[in-house]
Amino acid sequence: MRSVAPDQVDARSGRVLISPPFAILLWLAGVNALTFFRFWQDKQRAGRGEWRVSESELLSLAFLGGTPAAFAARHLLRHKTRKQPFSTQLTLIALAQAAGLTWLAAT
């Protein structure tokens, strides 16, 4: 088992601390995996005529960081590529995130 440096352990709880960049990376990996899965699930349900994943859920996942997976799923699964206003809303989320990242990088 890998040993942990003392400065990586919370003194009170004894839990291993995760650096903020690593925590963000874990979050983004998880939300992107979930986003792609939910797009795939929606595509499968559409083909079978079953109850669908709501567009608001798909857009919320994109807003929470799953935008790369949302665009990848749209392209790879050929799903929701022409649907309006969904496509416009997803693009606006991506633009807002890009603007936010640009602003963060500039400060």
Low-confidence stretches: none
Judged by helices, strands and strand pairing, the structural class is mainly alpha
Order of helices and strands: HHH
**DSSP E strands, number:** 0
Rg, Å, rounded: 18 Å
Mean pLDDT across every amino acid position: 92
Largest sheet: none
Share of β-strand residues: under 5%
The count of helical stretches stands at 3
Helix content: 55-70%
Distance between the termini: 40 Å
The general outline is flat
Oligomeric description of these chains: single chain
Helix-strand blueprint:
Layout: H1 20-48, H2 55-77, H3 86-106
Primary descriptors:
107 residues; mainly alpha; single chain; 3 helices
Describe the overall structure:
The protein has 107 residues and is mostly helical. Helices cover 68% and strands 0% of the residues. The chain has three helices and no strands. Helix 1 crosses helix 2. The radius of gyration is 18 Å and the shape is flat.
Brief rundown of the structure:
With 107 residues, this protein is an all-alpha fold. The protein has helices at 20-48, 55-77, 86-106.
